[in-house]
Amino acid sequence: MTRQMDVLKGTLDLMILKGLSWGPTHGYGLARWIRSTTQGALEIDDGALYPALHRLEDRGWIFSAWATTENNRKAKYYQLTADGRRQLRTEVTAWQKFAEAMHRIVAAATAPVGSQS
Amino acid sequence: MTRRGAWRRLLRLGRPDPAADIDAEIESHLALQIDDLMAEGWSREAARDEALRRFGDRGRAEREVLAVHARREATMRRTEYLRGLAHDLRLALRHLRRRPAFTLIAILVIALGIGAGSAVFAVVDAALLRPLPFARADEVVCLWDQQDEQTGLPLSFPEFRDWERDGDTFLAALAAIDGAGVRLKTETGWDLVEAARLAGDPRGVFGVDPLIGRWFTPEEMKTQARVVLLDEKMWRERFGASSDVIGTQLPLGQGSFTIVGVLPSRAKLFRGPAGANVSLWLIKNEGPTTDRGLHFLGVVGRLRPGVTFEQAQAATRVVADRLKASKVTEHGMGIQRARDALIGDTRPVLGVLAVAALFVLLIVCANLASLFASKFLERGRELAVRVALGAGRGRLVRLVVTESLVVGLAGGAVGLVLAQAMIEVTRAAARRAGALAPSSSADARVVAFTLATSLAVGVAFGLLAALRATRVDPAAALKDGERGTTGGRGGARRRKLLVAFQIAVSFVLVAGAGLLLRSLAHMLGEDPGFDPHGVLAARILLADQRFEDDAPKRAFLVELDRRLAALPGVTAASAATELPLDGGDTNGSFAIVGREEPGRPDLQSKKRVVGPGYFAAMGIPVLAGRAFRDGDRDGAPDVVIISEALRRAHWPNEDPVGKRVRFSWGPGDVEEIVGVVGDVRHDGLNRPVDGIMYRPMAQFPMRGLQVVIRTKTDPDALIAPLRGAVAALDPGVAMFDVRTMDRIVSVSTAAQRTLLLLIGGFAAIALILAAMGVYGTIALVVVQRTREIGLRLAVGAQRGDILRLVLGEAAWMLVAGLVAGACVALAASRALAELLYGVSAADPLTFVAAGALLVAVGLGATALPARRAARMDPLAALRSE
To answer: Which pLDDT value is given to residue B618?
Structure first.
């Protein structure tokens, strides 16, 4: 688990920012959204979200407040700030570039120069 | 209401405890998960387990969240602290600007204290703290011929050879150095420059590499080749630091020498205090150097690696005993660390200066503490308002200390400028006293010391003041109106204690300065044994090869004496070797014919060679027999004149005239005593009188000499005729260093005068500060007791009663300070004893005078506020708030 959390730390920020781009929600909402969107493929512990949420809040990308859910339970809601939106756009662009590049590598048909066959 | 507005409003609520907050957040997460799972049909138990499983490591999540918060808290605290500091700083600057007179005085007081401290530090650092600038400097030692426990003489050449040979058990290298003036040919004529001549293995001893070129080779040392090393200063000034000089010829009086290298200036330290002006390094020409009685070589050695100084001392004793046992010599040998040799007898002076400077700093702290405390007491209302608004005592202390630090640093900056000026004075004094002089400007170490002292002083007096001024009772202070806190009786007592402390420390400094003054007066009152007034002296050097032999030297010197004596306005003239009080000395051994016994050590005396007119020119009385005369020359019987001290020591009950002595130095084995002359103080006005043997110049002509002429008129008027006469007689003879004998006497006391000047200056600073302290305290007391005084006056008290009341306030500060000061001064002046001459360290007159001076200053400072109190209008005083 720890290993996976470390690997995903950077991408976790992107997931949270993206998850909040539709509007404010609580930590559980984000966890459920990630699980259903990825169909459980990433196996992230729900607990791993919270340090990331608090870190993002400290950076001023999101802010939080306690409110009541439709089922009348108290929950802490998070919302993107203007800075958070900007950050999301930056991270999405960077991620897409990275993913494309990785895709080209993985799908490559030519060998590196000097490789012994 | 927009959604955003709601969020904002929620945010404005107080920040909850982060630990409780994250705990609630996680609980809410689990609850929501359980709700969803149960809606899917899970049982409550199973749903809770599944929720916990999906959540993962709860402890870890909490820890990481709290870490995020802790980091933020720390950043915020830092920002807040810096913001507070900036605020305090602005506040401090505003207050200081609003009281320019107070600020200026405070800065000046600190500048005086720190300036004194930094100047003294520069000297002490150069002499004692800084490592000597040679490789492995603690291996370097000096050797001294030791006839008895106290006196150390330079070595004779045979002795140097003994130790070069026998000392190699513990010495890795040994070198001998002596000095000489040499003439250097220039475009216009000849210049005289100082040279140091080396023998042995100077390269091995010095541990100093040439800047360019190379050292003398052993081959060159052995054959005494005509090669020369330049000193760095000479190289820069005369050759523009060009590297082309290597291999070129340098035209000296003795002929042309090949320049082989340039030695850095620090090499001159090996020549000791006399080395400051060395421009050239030459190889010593051995010449007639078999005389064991001729002590003139400075000998420096380098210990073998791993040999400690204590081991070297023991080894020196062993070798010296062996040499004595084998009848090679009768003298012992002393060994000294290079640093001890270089700082000479200045260690006690440095100690006294350091303590005095520390005392001044202490007074400065005490003085500023009361100054600041009273300023902040005046601001009692402001401080009370701050306390009422919730400022803690720590906050107030910070406010005061910020202000004191600002003043401290400003004072330190001004002090550095003052120190610069004082370093000039101490540097000159250190030079003259033979110590390692500090560099001419404050360097990084001095600046660092100044900064550290400024901070320490700022914090010290700030805290002292703050602890007093911040004891604020806001309710009382605000009710009390304008004056706010008055410090109360306890505060006043502490304040008086500070003043008493200042008086005590001032007393120590004033008493010290008084002792030095009395000592200097005693010195100046000593009879030097000669009459310096109206006497002109100059050095001459017969460097030319023409003067290798005695005959031309003798001819020149006899003619010189004759021509100088014939100058208009001159009553007597003579060539002579070392002049009294002028530095330099030569010693020799002798035996009294008829009292010689095998195994009996030779007797020692200073030796001088003088012309027939010397005693008349110097005003030294002839007590018995006769002075030298023109007939005392080669071919005539060898004669000698002794000083009174030698007669007392060796012929206490008989007439020495006609007795004969045997010399182990120079030609003419046995000589007859023809006269006894008065003693002169040669080594210093405060030094004991040593016996002197005089021999006639015509029988023992020298090449490096002084001439003295006694004039009927102003000696300065004869400088030009003197130069003219020497040039007319022989243009190849160099003459330099023309000065009056009065000047020589004055220079000989320069070190004592500078010390007195410094300690006196410190004492004056202390006195002024103490007076300020007394004045400030009494003035405050009068202000505090205005209403009481008004009441007393209203009910019929006389002005005199009020005066007595106020003086009574001052009395115990003065008395306590004086008693404590006298005790400390009595203990401390013992450290001064070594530097005193003719006055006891516990001299009652000095102590009484110092006490009287302080009482006068203290009462003077009290009188002003006391008179103001006595003249008060009782009605106005009663009405005053």
So the answer is: 96
| Interchain pair B55, A73: CB under 8 A | no
Closest CA to B463 of B399, B374, B384, B392: B399
Q: Of A46, A54, A66, which is closest to B65 when you measure between CB atoms?
A: A54
Distance in Å, alpha carbon of A79 to nearest chain B alpha carbon: 9
Task: Work out how many CB contacts closer than 8 A connect A with B.
Answer: 82
Say yes or no to pLDDT of B786 above 50.
yes
Please choose, from the candidates B309, B9, B284, the residue with its C-alpha nearest in 3D space to the C-alpha of residue B160: B284
Residue A59 lies in a domain: yes
Using CB atoms and an 8 Å cut-off, which of residues 4-43 of chain A contact chain B? Answer: 24, 26-29, 31-32
Nearest CA in chain B to A40: B54
Looking at residue B694, its pLDDT comes to: 95
Question: What CATH number did the domain enclosing A83 receive?
Answer: 1.10.10.10
From A46, A65, A67, residue closest to B29, measured CB to CB: A46
Contact A45 B55 (CB under 8 A): yes
Token digits of residue B474: 């806001």
- Say yes or no to pLDDT of B330 above 80: no
- Contact list in B for residue A55 (CB cut-off 8 A) is 68
- B666-682 mean pLDDT: 84
Domain that holds residue A81: 11-103
In a domain, A111, yes or no: no
Buried b / exposed e over B11-36, threshold 16 CB at 10 Å, is: eeeeeeebeebbebbbebbbbbbbbe
Q: Quote the percentage of chain A above a pLDDT of 90.
A: 57
Average pLDDT over residues B675-680: 95
| A2: in domain | no
Question: Which of B166-170, B473-477, B568-572 shows the highest mean pLDDT?
Answer: B568-572
Residue B599 — left, alpha, or beta (φ > 0 → left; ψ -120 to 50 → alpha)?
left
- For testing contact with chain A, the best of B33, B36, B50, B55 (most A CBs within 10 A): B55
Residues of A in contact with B22 (CB under 8 A): 50, 54
B76-80, B198-202, B674-678: segment of lowest average pLDDT: B76-80
Structure tokens, B520: 């200097």
Quote the CA–CA distance of B473 and B487 in Å, as a whole number: 10
For chain B, the distance separating the N- and C-terminal CA atoms, rounded to the nearest angstrom, is 58
pLDDT tens profile B246-256: 999 999 877 89
Confidence bin at B128 (pLDDT 50/70/90): confident
Check A75 against B56: CB less than 8 A apart.
no
What value does the mean pLDDT take over residues B796-822? Answer: 87
Q: Rounded to a whole number, what is the largest CA-CA distance in chain B?
A: 143
Backbone angles phi, psi at B682, to 5 degrees: -90, -45
Is pLDDT at B429 greater than 90 in this prediction?
Answer: no
Q: Is the CB of A65 inside 8 Å of chain B's CB atoms?
A: yes
Interface of A with B in 89-108 (CB under 8 A): none
Note whether B65 contacts A50, CB cutoff 8 Å: yes
Give per-residue pLDDT as tens, B265-276.
888 888 876 677
Q: Give the pLDDT band (50/70/90) at residue B469.
A: low
Model ipTM value: 0.89
Q: Does the beta-carbon distance from A26 to B29 stay under 8 Å? A: yes
Q: How many domains does chain A have?
A: 1
CA B868, CA B863: separation in Å to the nearest integer? Answer: 8
Contacts of B61 in chain A (CB under 8 A): 45, 47-48, 50-51
Beta pairing, strands B670-677 & B639-643: parallel
Question: Would an 8 Å CB–CB cutoff place A54 in contact with chain B?
Answer: yes
**Residue range A23-40: mean pLDDT, rounded:** 91
Q: Which two tokens stand for residue B560?
A: 């010189």
Closest-CA residue in chain A for B10? A65
**Which residue(s) pair with B677 in the sheet?**
B622, B643
Query: What's the whole-model pTM score?
Result: 0.71
Instruction: Tell me if A112 is assigned to some domain.
Output: no
